[in-house]
């Protein structure tokens, strides 16, 4: 009987303390998530998409520093283009007379 009571106590006492620790951990997690959510929400509310158009003669046009091309357009009815080096629009048809790019960045 003593062994059964001892065994029962050794199983219940750690389980009780573990449950208390989980409650504290959950409360801390909720506070941290709430703080992060508030910071992210206020930052995103201030964010704006800033865009400008850039064009050049020939098959290549580069966006200004800090901007990324989001789309390209080509002269001579060429619809084949790609973005090179994460900042330059390249028209793939031969004899292109002009290329333009829509360049954007996120401003805070």
Tell me briefly what this model is.
With 108 residues, this protein is an alpha+beta fold. 42% of the residues lie in helices and 35% in strands. The protein is built from one helix and six strands.
List the main descriptive attributes of the protein structure presented here.
108 residues; alpha+beta; 3-stranded antiparallel sheet; elongated
How is this fold's topology laid out?
Blueprint: H1 2-46, E1 48-57, E2 60-62, E3 68-74, E4 81-84, E5 88-91, E6 98-107
Give an overview in words:
There is one protein chain. The chain has 108 residues and is α+β, with helices and mostly antiparallel strands. Helices cover 42% and strands 35% of the residues. The chain contains 1 helix and 6 strands, in the order H-E-E-E-E-E-E. It has one helix spanning 2-46, and strands at 48-57, 60-62, 68-74, 81-84, 88-91, 98-107. The chain has a 3-stranded antiparallel β-sheet with strand order 1-6-3. Strand 4 (81-84) and strand 5 form a beta hairpin. The termini are far apart. It comes from Mauremys mutica (yellowpond turtle). InterPro entries: RELM (IPR009714), Resistin-like_sf (IPR036262). Keywords: Disulfide bond, Hormone, Secreted, Signal. Residues 1-20 form the signal peptide. This is Resistin.
Unreliable spans: none
User: How big a fraction of the residues is strand?
Assistant: 35-45%
Distance N to C terminus? 70 Å
Largest sheet: 3 strands, antiparallel
Strand order of the largest sheet: 1-6-3
Q: What is the general shape?
A: elongated
């Amino acid at each position: 009987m003593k062994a059964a009571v001892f065994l029962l106590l050794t199983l219940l006492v750690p389980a009780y303390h573990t449950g208390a620790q989980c409650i504290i951990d959950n409360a801390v997690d909720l506070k941290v998530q709430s703080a992060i959510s508030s910071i992210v929400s206020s930052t995103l509310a201030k964010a704006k998409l800033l865009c400008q158009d850039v064009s050049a003669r020939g098959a290549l046009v580069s966006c200004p520093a800090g901007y990324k091309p989001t789309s390209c357009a080509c002269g001579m009815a060429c619809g084949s283009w790609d973005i090179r080096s994460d900042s330059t629009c390249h028209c793939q048809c031969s004899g292109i007379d002009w290329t333009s790019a829509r360049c954007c960045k996120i401003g805070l």
